[in-house]
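Page 42, continued from yesterday. The earlier attempt failed because a stray header line got pasted into the input along with the sequence. Redoing it now with the clean sequence only.
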Amino acid sequence: MKIADLLQTATTRLANAGIDEPQANAQFLLAHVLGVARTWVLVNGAFEVSEKEEKLFLSLLTRKGNGAPLAHITGIQPFCGLDILVTPDVLIPRPETENLVEIISEKFEKKGHYTFVDMCTGSGCIAVALAVKFPNARVLAVDVSSAALQVAAQNIRKHKLTERVDLLQSNLWENVMGTFDLIISNPPYIPSANLDNLSREVKEEPRLALDGGADGYEVTRPLCRAADGYLNPGGWLALELDDGQPWPLARGLAEIDWKAEVKKDIFNVERFVLAQKR
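This time it went through. Structure tokens are written below.
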């Protein structure tokens, strides 16, 4: 079957299954099967797909139609210009988190010798991105999940960063030693009562990486409470939170003598807290 005909059929199937952006998803899936860029698929509609490739594509299309995230099917999610390996054991990296990395990176000199800690690292996307951006920095990637740390280890090896990015299994600060120039985290922040309202794709991601407890601050609160003891003078705390959460947290930090600011993400949502201890 020709690419154009296959994509038309696939787009209709995904649309009927209630999948958002069915055309784009079909294109990305076919590009993955063919081992080419999405742009190649778009300009080669007359190309004949082999029977084997068509069969594989249709099987992946069924998974997508049943609600599997695209990144779980392809095993890859772009992040800060890097290909990050993902599995169902980790949160899929998102553009908002890329945005946090870009914003906080402006606070540091590219060639500086820094120590960073990425708390709740998941896939290790933040730790890897920071290590690539700052070639003289050392990064500690921390997570309570051993399964997540296995994925992070794969990403660290993939990007040849094993000498500068270390992994640590720890329930927040429990096993962490030392001080850092940056504490950065995309912690679980969705209130437990809201988890059932998430899209079926997001529900495929690990609950441990999503569930922020009754008020959404169950992980963030102890993370921030002890943070000043792990920061070097002038160090930064950078957090990604849910819509409506940053200002209460920023005010709470101000009450214990932090200088905190709230930043909007690329979708104009107040999502980030950046803070320094006074």
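Notes: The chain has a mean pLDDT of 96.
Reminder to self: strip header lines before submitting.
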